[in-house]
Design a protein that fits this description.
Layout: H1 7-24, H2 67-91, H3 95-98
Protein name: High-light-induced protein, chloroplastic
Organism: Capsicum baccatum (Peruvian pepper)
């Protein structure tokens, strides 16, 4: 294994190690842990860019079709589809055959 020498790596490894130990120890008010605080400041807007003067007013969603509802609906659909595939693989039959619908025999309509 190659040895890496970097002041960043040694501090990152030591802080991760001390943080992991902190989670394993019971709560101790006398325990001091070095915490790094990052301060993030927003950059100035480029020249020519203007902020909107008022917040846009959105209309009510039509029939309840909101973004969040559609996201959850699609997630439920994906879970159901994967579940259907798993059931078909386990029983080696299609879902329609399992519920009693005959498959592969045509429409049985006299011509």
């Amino acid at each position: 294994m190659a040895a890496l020498s970097s002041s960043f790596l040694s501090t990152a490894l030591s802080t991760n190690h001390s943080q992991n130990q902190h989670f394993l120890l019971p709560h101790n008010p006398n325990l001091k842990i070095n915490k790094r605080v990052f301060k993030i400041q927003a950059a100035k807007l480029p020249a020519g860019v203007e902020l909107p003067k008022e917040v846009p007013k959105l209309s009510r969603p039509l029939f309840g079709f909101t973004k969040t509802a559609e996201i959850w609906n699609s997630r439920a659909c994906m879970i159901g589809l994967i579940g259907t595939f798993i059931v078909e693989l386990i029983f080696n039959k299609g879902i329609l055959e399992m519920i009693g619908v005959e498959i592969g025999k045509g429409l049985d309509i006299p011509l």
